[in-house]
Design a protein that fits this description.
Length: 217
């Protein structure tokens, strides 16, 4: 069955039917010069993000939203694996295999992980690692509760803090490395930015990001 439209698959089709695969809204940001990459612009003036990559453009009520829903809420981790593998192969063909040393998924909070049973970013990291023939490490980053005093922060800072507190669980693993941080979907970019910031602080040589899909703002 096709993961996007649920039609039966024909022989030789892999997880998605030929029609869906042809009609997915591919973002192709890796083919654009950096100054024309809309995703890169979101990080300008914030952090030096080397490569800003996304496989698909998020469209409400479309195939991409359906695929992400399958991945996140229906236990269909194959969605992440197969899209990651295809995208990794495409990036390899574009010569980007040599641009990274390690793939790291954005972690879920432990409580959420226990509820869902899996992190939807892990399967994408696993697929990408396969397609790019690079190592990935699920536990390099850790999402933590904010324990710092909130009293001196304004309301906006407090709100941001709750969502985006990460720490590097394995500094030895990322030190001196070119790390590709991956997540299922990018909306504001705040989560990926927070992950990149702690990786750079822990001595990562470069940080890049890749998501399955990006939502327009
Ligand atoms: Zn289909």
């Amino acid at each position: 069955m096709c993961l996007a439209c649920h039609d039966p698959l024909a022989r030789g089709e892999d997880h998605l039917c030929t029609g869906c695969r042809a009609q997915l809204p591919y973002a192709d940001y890796h083919r654009l010069p950096p100054d024309q990459n809309p995703l890169a612009r979101r990080f300008w003036g914030k952090l030096p993000v080397q490569h800003t990559l996304s496989y698909l453009r998020f469209q409400k009520h479309g195939r991409v939203q359906h695929l992400l829903h399958q991945l996140k809420y229906q236990g269909q981790q194959d969605v992440g694996r197969v899209l990651g593998r295809w995208y990794g192969q495409e990036l390899t063909e574009a010569g980007l295999q040599a641009a990274f040393d390690l793939i790291v998924p954005v972690p879920l909070h432990a409580r959420k992980l226990a509820q869902r049973g899996y992190n939807q970013a892990d399967s994408f990291a696993e697929g990408l690692a396969q397609g790019l023939q690079l190592p990935w490490h699920a536990a390099a980053l850790h999402r933590v509760m904010n324990t710092k005093s909130q009293t001196r922060k304004n309301r906006m800072e407090r709100w941001e803090n709750v969502e985006t507190v990460f720490e590097v669980a394995e500094p030895n693993l990322v030190h001196g490395q070119r790390v590709l941080v991956v997540d299922d979907v990018l909306t504001t970019g705040a989560t990926l930015e927070a992950c990149c910031a702690v990786l750079l602080a822990a001595g990562a040589r470069e940080v890049s990001i890749a998501t399955i899909a990006t939502a327009d703002r």
